[in-house]
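Reply to dn_fold:

You asked what the input looked like. This is it:
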Amino acid sequence: MILPAGRTPLCVAVDEFCEIIRRRSGGTRKSWETDVSRLRAAGELLDVDYVQEITPSAVARVLDAKEAQLRSPKTINNFREVVQRFCNFLLMERDVAFDMTGRTNPAALIRRRREDAPEIRFLEPDELDRLLDGLSDRLQIRAMVAVMAFAGLRRGEVCWLTKEDVDLGARLVIVRAKTIDDESWQPKTARNRSIPISTRLAGELRRWESPSGTVWYFPSPHGSRWQEDNFSRSLRNAQASMFTFWGSLHLRHTFGTALARKDVSLYKISTLMGNSPEIVRRHYAVLRSEDLRDEVEF
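and this is what came back:
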């Protein structure tokens, strides 16, 4: 097939960028598979033959189709984001100019959908105590729950902890990029961080003795690294008799909420949790008084 001069087939570019997503991803397989599936679905809905033909209206068509499927504003914005990243790749790495917008990203011209304020679920102190008590016969699950609730780690960060990452002597948990057995991983925001181990967390971790013969601080029942979905399933099963379920995100929010209630600055919370200050502001700012009571007296 003879291509028109200077034209790049959309299907070829989508395949190339999907492979780049896979190679550059430092997260789990699930994370890059989600982006790839969104890009491929968006590519079909763009309804153009060549990447140069992508226009703002073509991008809007993708988002309108997702809205017609009753997708949430957040999901629609996720589709917009992956198309915008694709177009940035074309502009910056393949030197593509679009027929209508030239060197301007057509997806960037489409406004994000307005998202509802996030609903944050977290455990109150007595609820967390009951959860930990209910896991007394599952010491590993209990210790992993404690790391999320008292140090704010994400599920994947807990599953990727090695023995070198937990220093009870220095009272630090370190979240950092690593390569083990030819498998690479890095934190979600691609930033390493260390979190102080509180007295309560230190006590929980001392109850758990990480087995020898493995690099993992919390090895799976098979001695390998926990797969995230398998851990979530085990966490759910461990709570079956409690007639409730608290997931990994609820536990992480418990940590952020506790900090916000102590009026810890949003910058410090973002540093400890490995989030951007804006994300932390959206989630936890409402819980902080920020010593504003005196300011409204005039």
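The two ends are 76 Å apart (CA to CA).
Hope that clears it up.
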